[in-house]
Amino acid sequence: MEAPAAPHNPAESEATESSVSSAEITVTSPEQMRDLGRRLAKLLRAGDLVMLNGELGAGKTTLTRGLGEGLGVRGAVTSPTFVIARVHPSLGDGPPLVHVDAYRLGGGLDEMEDLDLDVSLPDSVIVVEWGEGKVEELTDDRLHVVIHRAVGDTTDEVRHVTVTGLGGRWATVDLSVLSA
Q1: Is the pLDDT of residue 10 over 50?
Q2: Considering the entire predicted model, what is its pTM?
Q3: Cα-based torsion angle of the residue sequence 83, 85, 27, 54 in order, rounded to the nearest 10 degrees
Q4: Using alpha carbons only, how large is the chain's radius of gyration in Å?
Q5: Residue 6 DSSP SS3
Q6: Which terminus in the chain has less CB density within 10 A, N or C?
């Protein structure tokens, strides 16, 4: 005998559906990952927080390099692992890119407070690698990008990328354009 279905609350469903959007993309080369970053950059604006998660070597920095190209920022986008954060000013009238690598940071937002991300956020696009559990408190409106790849001794370049927009900012953004 089946358990009775849970009561359906339309208001609850609407709130969930209106505050979350997502897209699944398969990438087969580093150049395609950069292209994905360039396409994603077209959707970003000042005040956006992008959290990147994935295994070592998944392509987080490669994606961010494409974001930098798409946003038209100055300087080579490289992994900020040892400096924790890099600011790439815009070459035009767009927002600067703040690229953070939180891999070596153990705590939550308190440990990242010295980076003044809350001060930079309104005027910048902030991309945080390894940010899960560390920067969510900055804003309810954020983009989660999770990159899955085969692990172990493999030369497989295939990546499965899930892009999820959370909050009102992303409720009306069509993330399916990233699959183009």
Answers
A1: no
A2: 0.80
A3: 80
A4: 17
A5: coil
A6: N
